[in-house]
Write a structure and sequence with these properties.
By secondary structure, the chain is an alpha+beta fold. The chain contains 10 helices and 10 strands. It folds into 3 domains: 10-94 and 114-188, no CATH class; 203-282, Signal transduction histidine kinase, dimerisation/phosphotransfer (DHp) domain (Helix Hairpins, Orthogonal Bundle), CATH 1.10.287.130; 294-443, Histidine kinase-like ATPase, C-terminal domain (Heat Shock Protein 90, 2-Layer Sandwich), CATH 3.30.565. α2 (21-46) packs antiparallel against α5, α5 packs parallel to α6 (203-253) and α8 (300-315) packs parallel to α9 (336-353).
């Protein structure tokens, strides 16, 4: 069975797609030059006689208008002489008009020269009418066409040579930086993120080069963060898995020595593994636009107070002090689960970085039309160079895996996405040695029963 061929139109499109930019520009410029030469040849040879006749008829009409305006002028005779000498238009009274003899054709078989004759009546100031005949000879243009044809041969040769040279220069000038950037882009596609794009010659090419350089730089950062994430996840997964395995092995080998502490350790480490997986899944859903809000009215103050109390009770034996301050209850129209997730991540972040004092202060501030929740820790603070990046995914200020500072580096990125999903804002105020204050702000509602 013979393979089916694509339509002819598709052949042309496929051929254009495979043609290099340099040769495409070269072809366009040559085609444009050929079009100009074709138009020039048509007007200077084929349409020359017709154009000449149109010009002569236009001159006859101009002469008629000039005579009509100066029919009573004392210089009327001089005007007629000027028309005859300069434009070869003979003006005579109609009753005495005798057309001059026409010259014989230049070669046998050629047509005799043509002439244009117009007769018009004019009224003098005295009321008398006169009839004048305007006569203009159409000079044969055969010799002129032959002369122009020779000139056109020379002009065409020069134009073709110059157009080819110009097309080569322009096509190379336009295509060379694009070809260079294409080669660099292929290197970038193989994972060489240190490649540099160099564009010059045109504003759009320079802007494209800058954009690609920025993209390469961002991809390099993402690759570095990805590798760091893999290291973080590998470390954070290895520790609980080792603990779970060691306790399970002990429980298998010595079933009579199993204590509630062993079971609690396994459950805590399993919960920690689940939390790491949840972080990755949550951020994936948020960044792909799959995160949907299930909005409801609830008291944010009560919600935060309960979460703080629960966290304080869990960490009380470890010496943590978590306090919450709020002047009055405030209500919001939001997704309770997602707001709880954002607040929980901020609270865990504060617990991880609060330092030896282990004091955390959670406060609620009322603003016009919104409510702000701030979480202040007593840690070492964040360096100024780290502040712009802490909300990025995979980013961790502490790179040393000190327990309890664990996690994937996704917590703050999840907070950012959740708050933006609610149309709110977020931020951090931090100085080295003075701790950090993370805050989120979302719109609040005011109802008669919850004012």
């Amino acid at each position: 069975m013979e393979p089916s061929l694509p339509p002819c139109g598709d052949w042309g499109i496929d051929l254009m797609d495979k043609c290099k930019l340099q040769w495409r520009i070269f072809g366009f410029l040559l085609a444009f030059c050929g079009l100009l030469l074709t138009i020039l040849w048509l007007f200077q040879t084929v349409f020359l006689t017709d154009t000449y006749k149109l010009v002569r008829r236009s001159e006859i009409q101009s002469a008629i208008s000039l005579v009509e305006q100066n029919i009573d002028s004392p210089d009327f005779a001089r005007i007629l002489t000027t028309l005859q000498n300069e434009q070869e238009i003979l003006v005579m009274p109609t009753h005495t008009f005798q057309p001059p003899p026409r010259p014989a054709p230049e070669e046998p078989g050629k047509r005799k020269p043509e002439a244009i004759t117009e007769t018009r009546r004019f009224r003098l100031a005295s009321g008398e009418e006169v009839s004048l005949t305007f006569y203009a000879m159409i000079t044969p243009v055969s010799a002129t066409v032959s002369t122009l044809r020779v000139q056109l041969y020379c002009i065409s040769g020069v134009l073709i040579l110059l157009s080819v040279l110009l097309a080569v220069i322009i096509s190379r000038r336009i295509s060379k930086p694009i070809v260079t950037m294409n080669a660099s882009a292929k290197q970038l596609a193989t994972g060489q993120y240190d490649v540099q794009f160099e564009g010059h010659g045109f504003l759009e090419i320079r802007e494209l080069s800058d954009t690609l350089n920025t993209a390469a730089e961002e991809l390099s950062k993402v690759e570095g963060l990805r590798r760091e994430l893999m290291a973080n996840v590998s470390h954070d997964l290895r520790t609980p898995l080792a603990l779970i395995y060691s306790h399970a092995e002990m429980m298998h080998d010595f079933p009579d020595e199993v204590t509630p502490e062993h079971c609690r350790t396994i459950m805590e480490e399993a919960k920690r593994l689940s939390s790491l997986v949840d972080d990755v899944m949550d951020l994936s859903h948020l960044e792909t636009g799959e995160g949907r809000l299930h909005l409801e009215d609830f008291c944010l103050t009560t919600h935060v107070r309960n979460e703080v109390a629960r966290m304080a009770e869990l960490l009380e034996q470890e010496g943590y002090q978590i306090r919450f301050f709020a002047e009055r209850d405030l209500w919001v129209h939001a997704d309770r689960v997602k707001i709880n997730r954002a607040f929980y991540n901020l609270l865990v972040n504060a617990v991880n970085y609060t330092g030896e004092r282990k004091e955390i202060l959670v406060s609620q501030e009322e603003d016009e039309g919104s409510v702000r929740i701030s979480i202040k820790d007593c840690g070492e603070g964040i360096a100024p160079e780290d502040l712009p990046h802490i909300w990025e995914r995979y980013y961790k200020v502490d790179k040393l895996h000190r327990r309890p500072v664990t996690g994937t580096g996704l917590g703050l990125s999840i907070v950012r996405n959740l708050i933006l999903l609610h149309g709110g804002s977020y931020g951090v105020d931090s100085k080295l040695g003075q701790g950090s204050t993370f805050w989120v702000q979302i719109p609040r509602i005011k109802t008669p029963e919850h004012s």
